[in-house]
Design goal:
The protein is of the alpha+beta class. It has a domain at 14-70 and 107-134: CheA-289, Domain 4 (OB fold (Dihydrolipoamide Acetyltransferase, E2P)), CATH 2.40.50. Helix content is 22%, strand content 28%. It has a four-stranded mixed beta sheet. Strands 5-6-7 form a three-stranded antiparallel beta sheet, with no helix packed on it. A hairpin with a 2-residue loop joins β1 (14-20) and β2.
Length: 135
């Protein structure tokens, strides 16, 4: 897995920050966020970067089995009561497996989003100070 930077006091769901071509991207532990079993990240643990209207962030995946194109017609709307904050917005069946489709916009509560944004701003300031010292 890519090297991540951490800040003291950051929440447990926040694994750290990825410097992606100069952009500071928060990296979330999806297993901790959804309270499901998770594996410890290893050298080849994939990160999935999500671009949303409100912010960009990455999630740690246990593993990537495959990337499969799925037609929009295959998506079945999920019951809003079936997941926290209605973050599972649909499901789709692929090769006999039912896969939940998560909404990146609904994975975090507003308070969590603000907290992570504050830590992200601190990390950006820290990196800017380091860059200013090298000039």
């Amino acid at each position: 897995m890519a090297a991540l930077s951490r800040l003291p006091g950051q929440p447990a769901v926040l694994e750290g920050f990825l410097n992606l071509r100069g952009a500071v991207i928060p990296v979330l532990r999806l297993g901790r966020l959804l309270e499901v079993a998770e594996s410890e990240p290893g050298l080849y643990t994939p990160l999935v970067v999500l671009h949303t209207a409100s912010a960009d962030f990455a999630v740690i995946a246990d593993k990537a089995l495959e990337i499969v194109p799925v037609p929009a017609s295959a998506f079945v709307r999920a019951d809003e009561q079936a997941s926290f904050n209605a973050c599972a917005e649909a499901q789709v069946e692929v090769d006999g497996r039912v896969i939940a489709v998560l909404s990146p916009e609904r994975l975090l509560l507003e308070q969590e989003r603000r907290s992570i944004a504050e830590f992200q701003a601190r990390m950006e300031r820290r990196l800017a100070e380091l860059g200013a010292g090298q000039a």
